Write the structure tokens for this entry.
Amino acid sequence: MADAELAQSAARGDSDAFGQLIDRHGLAARRAALAVLRDEDDADDAVQEGMLAAWRAIDRYDPARPFRPWLMRIVVNAALDARRRSRVRQAEPIVDSLESSGLGPDRRAEATLLREKIQAGLAGLPERQRVALVLFDAEGWGHADIAAVLGVPEGTVRSYVFHARRAMRRALGTLAEAMK
Amino acid sequence: MTTSPFDNQRDEQLGRLLREQLIGSAPEVFLRRLRRAVAEAEPRSEWDILAGWARPRVMALAVAAGLLLWFGTWVAAGSSPRDPGVMVASLPAHTVLSPQPPAVDEIMSAMMERR
């Protein structure tokens, strides 16, 4: 069933239909929230808050438009709000997610090094550049959608992505090529 | 990674690395947590659903009512008589203020002055 149909069922009160939408988009929402907050617990809380807000506002979703950007905008805004509320909190390292099962010791060491470099690269980016980079390259958002969420012109988003890519390239060096 | 930072295309390799890094721990547990949170959230009552359905229609009705009111006022103003009525001001002041009816001479002289 298409997202829009599930959303319409959810708008009629069907929480199972909304659950299916969670299964489809929950992890993308988590990545976006992690890009903003860099702390897994905070990100998970923000995604939950965003999902509940989306559930309560599902009757305002326009089925003629794609569902994912609508949902992600709510989640990213929830994460940005959480970020504003907890500016003083020190971000924890992003979780060890590159499970190295099946990799030999050399590849595992490379994967660990790559993970550390990505974490360092992301940590070194200003928040808006980090969000723009993740939403554009990892989540496939368009410049216009990112601009709408961040409240900046499209040209500024292009600039964010440019600077973020340059910084990430510097942080990763030749490792990314080696991991291909 | 892409060679040009100005490239409008997505950098698939960087995107893949970021997705791997930002997946978080125990994704299935996380999705279950979200589903449970929605299921346990205050259920949307029938009134909520009805309100969501009715909201745009109520707004449309309010706008239509406002337009009708404005149109009615405009039509009423357009059809009001332009005849100013009795021109008592042309009569001497004491004939208006006096409890006694004015004399015929006073009325006649007022009418003659208007000519």
Summary: Residues 46-78 of chain B form one domain.
